Amino acid sequence: MNQQKLRFLVVTAHPHDFTHSAATCGIHAARGDQVTVVSIGTGLYTHNERLHGELMKPPGERDRTVTRQRPDHYAKTKAEELRKACALFGIEDVRILHAEEPFRVARSPKTVEDIRDVILELRPHVMITQSPYLTGHHRLLSGALDDHAEAAYASLEARTLAATARYGSDVPPHRVAAAYFPGVYFEKDQYDFYVDVTDWFERRVQAEMAFRSQGHTDDFARRRIAVTLGSIGWYAGVMYAEAFVREKPEVLPGIIVADNSLERAEEPPSQHIRRISGAEEPWK
Ligand SMILES: [Zn+2]
Asked: What is the pLDDT, as a whole number, of residue 76?
């Protein structure tokens, strides 16, 4: 891996969206890279499953502690959940921009400036942000009405503005070297690369459990992470993986083959079976 310490900026639409690249962020934080997480919204209108459930009941049967909960209390809970999840991966710098939700750039243009300010303050090398692409048949209609795509437009626009010199400003412009989108927003054949996060499985489960407000019970969290990271990992040839899509092809000094690929080319089949399943040595 590159020896230079990197600065990462992760921009999400809502608090829980951080989890989709959490283990990769943890790997970088552990190697001394600086990681900052910015959630554009508080997640006020996303996955408030309890409120949804109560409002489906006849008025007389509703739990008023849920239906009367103040929105700022719910937002505060989600902020705490995000901080708790980030702490599992060694990330302390967590910021919430409190943009109006549902988030639409056209209604909250100031958010683009807010993200630009963060970029100019932190001067990140890497940005991990929501995908601006509308992939898959279910997503064709959702883009214009979706917080995640709008968060992508806002962050990529802010990235462009941060790299643009302004009259009357003493702050030097800053170019983000590379942007990546979590693979969760793409089909498998669109992934650019995988990160082996097998060693981070338990922390990904705990991060999922942290979002109690969204109904993430222990069983739900463990099952979700086993199925989703396990599925990606299975195709990557490891137990658990996070996938990413690059914004654009990177310029490399030559062909780079990761150590993992070189090691795997040399390993016997029995080791592959062990690695992908965690099972004991076959044919013993
Ligand atoms: Zn979200």
From this structure: 94
